[in-house]
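Researcher: Here's a chain I'd like modeled. Treat it as a single chain, no partners, no ligands.
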Amino acid sequence: MTALHRARPVDHYENFPVASWLCPPRLRPAVAAIYWFARTADDLADEGDASPQNRLDELAAYRADLHAIAAGRPPSDRWPAVFGPLARALAEWQLPVSALLDLLSAFEQDVVKTRDGAGYADRAELLDYCRRSANPVGRLMLHLYGVSDATSLARSDAVCTALQLINFWQDVGQDLARGRRYLPDADCLEHGVDPIAPAASPAAQRAALLEAECAWARGLMLEGAPLVHRVPGRAGWELRAVVQGGLRILDRIEALGFDTFRHRPRLGPLDVLVIGARMVRM
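Model: Modeled as a single isolated chain. Structure tokens:
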């Protein structure tokens, strides 16, 4: 999770399991290579004051380097710290290049949506974005662990999409300030919220909208949660932490009265204890 990047529990990549102690040593170089590929692309799309067109041009060059290493050709010399390790990971683990391309597609969409001030028409359109921005991360991790059955992939997609949605719902106010609108237009209209300027709508309608969106995310997370029993060893515990951390953020959003237009939920030491206890119960 694009789960994964900002100290967000479910931002694209800040929660990515970057060579953590829970990750087997033999997988750490590949995990780190995937992380830095995604992190750098996210920065190209998001950081600094470059124009939208310049960002798209940079991402196109980045995509060309990915195609180069996938074909066994040398990339440009612009991002050696990214494409050197990634080329080795591709060769050793036969990583699905389509998942990496999906991530780039999502980053490019971020640039276009911000430039145009566009939102998402409905949940289906937002889910398509999550399919490319979040789900590839889970699938890449499952690939490294040798898990490829259809049920596990579907559960991974549910967890990753839920994490991406939770990220959106906890950061509604911050994202609106950055010109990004993730609340689906259809959902806004259903709850009497102006999709163009949702923060200007009455507080009660905004809260009802966020409550519905959080329920959607929680349902997806619970749908995918059984995956923790399929992922082997320490990674299964890390996944438990990810699942329970996301659910705890939803608890905190509820405690704020579903008002993330003005407040952002934060986890404290007590929340860590709660997450730990819930991990054990899983």
